[in-house]
């Protein structure tokens, strides 16, 4: 089992990283939700490293002085999310990609949760990666950050395979929006998949101790993610 540790990209992006002890040729960038790089994100890096990937999770809030808010302080977290910019997101994602490439990864995927899932869809259209997975990423109908298109607009620009996983009970991402995204993706020339889980809400995967986690669906989502990366990263 790998040790989760802090690192810095060549461009100065702070990262939480984990990698197998053996040489790797594949990597995954993990993009956090609005709560920042929590212990749950660290657990994700360890889980992916156990599957044979080098993993790097950029700290997307590193330009802000504000502390990461407690989970019950949603408004504080949303305000922090609004401080992100398209140029900052691009720089941080590329910094993590460059770190993994320097570690030996010749193919890189992106896995994002919630806010990070929104960015993962953008990355599938604009970042130098090979595949991406979004766990319940919002911003489908309307953009969240100037310079980053909405999900339905990004669908036409996908460059690499993408998988999106959503819960039908997610009040922040209506099923109608997910289906509009599916329709937009039908015109894509790459492998683009949307999976819906009936009866589960937002955040059903990341933190197994959270009340919104649904174990059976969470495990299925992980299985699909690992298989998707296995197919497209090798």
Automatic annotation (TrEMBL):
User: Taking every annotated instance into account, which residue ranges of this chain make up the domain Dienelactone hydrolase?
Assistant: 19-232
Q: Which Pfam families match?
A: DLH
Q: Entry's InterPro entries?
A: AB_hydrolase_fold (IPR029058), Dienelactn_hydro (IPR002925), Dienelactone_hydrolase-like (IPR051049)
Q: Which domain of life is it from?
A: Bacteria
MF-aspect GO terms: hydrolase activity
Protein name, as recorded: Carboxymethylenebutenolidase
Source species taxonomy: Bacteria, Bacillati, Actinomycetota, Actinomycetes, Geodermatophilales
